[in-house]
Give the backbone structure.
Amino acid sequence: MSSSGLRVVWVYPDLLSTYGDQGNVLVVERRARQRGLTVERVDVRSDQPIPTSGDIYLVGGGEDRPQRLAAERLRRDGGLHRAVDNGAIIFSVCAGYQILGHEFVNDLGQREPGLGLLDVVSVRGTGERCVGDVLADIDEALRLPQLTGFENHQGITQLGPGVRPLARVRLGNGNGTGDGTEGAWAGTVFGTYMHGPVLARNPQIADLLLKLTLDVNALPPVDDRWYEALRTERIAAATQAAA
Amino acid sequence: MTESAQPLSARARLAVTAGKAAAAVSRAAGRGSGSVIGGKVALKVDPELLSRLAGHLDVVLVSATNGKTTTTRLIAEALRAGGEVVSNALGANMPAGITSALSGGATARFGVIEVDEKYLAGVARDVTPKAIALLNLSRDQLDRAAETRMLAERWREGLQGSKATVIANADDPLVVWAASSSPDVVWVAAGQEWKDDAWSCPSCGGVLHRPDDTTWTCGDCGFGRPVPSWVLSGDTVIDPNGSAWPIRLQLPGRANKANAATAAATAAAFGIPPHIALERMQSVAAVAGRYDVVSHRGRDIRLLLAKNPAGWLETFSLIDPPPTPVILSVNARGADGTDTSWLWDVDYGRLIGHPIAVIGDRRLDLAVRLEVAGVDFRVCESLTEALQTLPPGRIEAIANYTAFQDLRRAVGN
């Protein structure tokens, strides 16, 4: 992190900010400020270069055509690769998650190359769209409580040997592969299908991103009363709906 | 623009009767107005019924993400200057509800019909409208609805070859793209506060440039804002001759002035001059409960409906300033969309300074949203508790779809 504070980059709000995922930026910003950090939020439109000096890059979900346009522009830009080489964290959701992989199927039904920052490949499912609340156990290596979120996608994402699943679903679909995996992560790059937005539903993940950036094991506690109340309610609702 | 009334066929008459009977049964069972079930039954008996019922009418269709119920009402009031109007005034805006509404219009001259965005192309085929008013398109219930640009594409395909005069908002790039496939468009500069669904060119995908408040152009293909012939300018609407007509409404807010400007342009297409149209619109005080001020447990409450980020944005701009107390209520039932993520596309920071109580099924989602926005709030279990909590003054109650219905029931509206 630079001396001027934490730089949070919100990638392509003009294309990849359709499903409320900018909430992830707001939650990271808020929880960093509550820990006394200075935060600079940088919104990068798709006709602007991706800065390579950011600390945390957040990429959201978008509709099918904007997803293709975003992939084209991010490939041409190359900034996210340099940022990862500099040690930055990337946290991506849904369409953004697919873009970080090797390839996905675009709005024209064609295979579109991604950025290859995650060892995953996405295709379009032929069954019903995955829509609804999800409950999952996060990879124990990350030592985080249960994942709660809302999925809304048609994609199926196969994980390669270079990544670990972010979580194993108890309820819902996640990666849609039928093997119970949800999302993927490797090093400082994360992907998930969860909206909600996911960091509002799981503030501990936002804190994990901050800890990785600051290279610390713990952060001063903040008032998590409302987050906890929401988590309890959503986990109970998902469990009840499944029963 | 009138056509001679054709008597309905025996089958169509039977269909109307069957529909009315089903509606009566539904009403008797306490299941609402019965207009939707009535329409469904009628369409089953005669699938062509909608086009038959509309045959003798001069039809106006109204569609949009936001403002369609209000604009339908405003156009209906304006056109009453020219003859009897039949309209689905209560917002039942899919084919069954529309059929049901039109079955009461045997003697009407005009049919003013609100249409759900997804059904516009189909209804436009069935009823051969004389005019179609298109207000705006933005993200709404994305867990169950089509993508926003996809809707614009369906509109565009549906309008190709339509003989209707399209009255369309020049300030919404998605609407412009959808309408520009039509040979006869009247452009209205009606404004669009929400811009986050139109940063990329609907035509080629390039980035749209917005050098000032009104202009927008694609940097890649040059697609841009058409020259409007009607312009909303503050509290007036300027007609194609350059005359400015004052808009005096009981309905609050910029968005309703935009709705009135579009309604005036639509009425003009039927020969109703703007001053007469606008004067008639002044009589509208509330639309299906929206904007109604009700007294409940000793408090005055203004009921405001906001279903999606664009709607919340327009609503924030019309509420009374702090320290006016505010109630926020959000549900996520079927009709609302079951994903609450959209709350994070609403800038709740604009409510700083208002005493706030949050209610509704998803009050905890709102609580986290407001906490992160740095806005003070209280979570309440019920409307009654919220009313006890909030300081004196008229309350602005903003709710999404089913939460709004709950509110109306709770206050006996």
